[in-house]
Amino acid sequence: MKKKLLVVGAHSGDFVWRAAGTLAKALEEGAETLVVAMSYGERGESGELWKEDPKRSEESVKKIRHEQASRAAEIIGTPIRFLDWGDYPMLLSDERVRQLTELIGDFEPTVILTHSEKDPFNPDHPVAFQAVMRARLLASGAGVPSAFKNIEPPAWYSFEPHQPELSAFVPDTFIDISSVMDKKIAAMACMGAQNYLKDYYTELASRRANHARRISGQKHIQYAEAHQSQVPRVVASIF
Ligand SMILES: [Zn+2]
Q1: C-alpha of residue 41 to centroid of ligand 1, in Å
Q2: What is the pLDDT of residues 103-131, one digit of tens each?
Q3: Exposed e or buried b per residue across 1-21, where buried means at least 16 C-beta atoms within 10 angstroms of its C-beta
Q4: Please, which pLDDT band fits residue 141 given cuts at 50, 70 and 90?
Q5: How far, in Å, is the centroid of ligand 1 from the Cα of 45?
Q6: What is the model's pLDDT at position 193?
């Protein structure tokens, strides 16, 4: 079966910090990928741009954020789609859920990666989680024949939030991103609006690799990203 990874972020930078390594690794393995940025994070996650020039317009911030995320996606080698739903607050409507459902139905991902259900420090990330949960179910039906077109239910993971313990994030899947960490670092460097996160997420990847080595005994892992599965995986064999 074709491997297809869909990464959905509330803001245009989210995929870079939390899933760029997993995306690059998937591409290295011949998978098809798509990133969806529900908003540009123009209000809530562009503090450095507003600090530079408090009088600039939201439209100009969106433009810069569009360019930064597009460059980061290009470095990773993944297509990216911008939905421009607005942030802080991100609002869900029936039309937006329908748009996301159609997008999932068209792309037919085998794996979806998005935010965690809880994030007490961000008003939009849990909204993105809810949107993805609904759209994934609407696109895939309930596992039985339906009257409408549906896709195989994709595997579904949450990527790591900024404050994992306080977001009830318990990682159960570690991806070895050592071979593509240079791409993640280069992609992070594109995100000028959130430069302070670059060192933080490099350190985190190194710390998660320590955990991955301890769990698996695979001593070569230098960098890792951690995710939490939202639905059980069905596998052909216990091995
Ligand atoms: Zn975000």
Answers
A1: 7
A2: 999 999 999 999 999 999 999 999 999 99
A3: eeebbbbbbbbbbbbbbbbbb
A4: confident
A5: 7
A6: 65
**Cα–Cα distances in Å, from 191 out to 13, 49, 74, 81?**
7, 11, 13, 17
The reported pLDDT for the residue numbered 52 is 87
Give the Å distance between the CA of 87 and the centre of ligand 1.
9
- Give the whole-angstrom CA distance, residue 205 versus residue 25: 14
Would you say 227 and 160 are in contact if contact means Cβ atoms under 8 Å apart?
A: yes
Distance from Cα 14 to the centre of ligand 1, integer Å: 5
Domain membership of residue 57 as a residue range? 4-229
Please state whether the predicted TM-score (pTM) of the whole model is above 0.70: yes
Residue 167 Cα, ligand 1 centroid: separation in angstroms?
A: 14
Give the total number of structural domains in the chain: 1
- List CB-based neighbours of ion ligand 1 within 5 Å: 10-11, 14
Residue 236 covered by a domain:
no
Residue 20: give its domain's CATH number: 3.40.50.10320
